[in-house]
């Protein structure tokens, strides 16, 4: 007997599998979660957004970052399409690097309640200074392997 697709049991309210409008602000963006089929197992999930953009709240100029989000799921997984839409909602959002990075980490943590989450925001230089911002929830569960985020410190042309 063929196994039923787990997608058929997902709520119709998910953005997954249908056309949705791009949210024009982080506040309007919806983050979806789906049940974790491996909830009794500790493992790491990594999302990388190497072309994150937002707007400087002072100058209105674009800011660019490479975001790396690592989390150990609990009962819920973060649905990736909704994360893409959420990340894209920052394109016209004016906020400092620190605010964007921490806001994203806190919002994801609130939505999916992971056992542990960290976000690294590796911001490209403007005015000659790159800014790296890191935030995490609590302590990493025991015996978890977490690879390096793989983003080298900014070195310019050196």
From TrEMBL:
Please provide the record's keywords in A-Z order.
Cytoplasm, NADP, Oxidoreductase, Queuosine biosynthesis
List of catalytic residues: 56 (thioimide intermediate), 63 (proton donor)
Q: Per its UniProt record, what SUPFAM superfamilies does this chain match? A: Tetrahydrobiopterin biosynthesis enzymes-like
One Pfam assignment: QueF
A GO CC term assigned to this protein in UniProt = cytoplasm
One example of the protein's molecular function in GO is: preQ1 synthase activity
Q: Does the keyword Amino-acid biosynthesis apply?
A: no
EC number(s) on file: 1.7.1.13
Q: Which GO biological process entries does UniProt record here? A: tRNA queuosine(34) biosynthetic process
Region Disordered, annotated ranges:
1-33
What this protein catalyses is: 7-aminomethyl-7-carbaguanine + 2 NADP(+) = 7-cyano-7-carbaguanine + 2 NADPH + 3 H(+)
Q: Which organism is it from?
A: Bradyrhizobium lablabi
**HAMAP family reported in the protein's UniProt record:** QueF_type1 (MF_00818)
Biological role stated in the UniProt entry: Catalyzes the NADPH-dependent reduction of 7-cyano-7-deazaguanine (preQ0) to 7-aminomethyl-7-deazaguanine (preQ1).
Q: What is this protein called?
A: NADPH-dependent 7-cyano-7-deazaguanine reductase
The pathway that the record names for this protein is: tRNA modification; tRNA-queuosine biosynthesis
């Amino acid at each position: 007997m063929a196994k039923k697709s787990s997608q058929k049991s997902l709520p119709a309210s998910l953005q997954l599998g249908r056309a949705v409008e791009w949210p024009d602000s982080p506040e309007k963006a919806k983050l979806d979660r789906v049940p974790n089929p491996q909830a009794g197992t500790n493992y790491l999930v990594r999302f990388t957004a190497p072309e994150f953009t937002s707007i400087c709240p002072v100058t209105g100029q674009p800011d660019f970052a490479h975001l790396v989000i690592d989390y150990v799921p609990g009962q819920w997984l973060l649905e990736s399409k909704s994360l893409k839409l959420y990340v894209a909602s920052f394109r016209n959002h004016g906020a400092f690097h620190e605010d964007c990075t921490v806001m994203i980490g806190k919002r994801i943590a609130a939505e999916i309640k992971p056992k542990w989450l960290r976000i690294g925001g590796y911001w490209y230089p403007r005015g000659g200074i790159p800014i790296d911002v890191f935030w995490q929830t609590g302590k990493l569960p025991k015996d978890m392997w977490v690879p390096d985020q793989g983003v080298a410190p900014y070195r310019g042309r050196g």
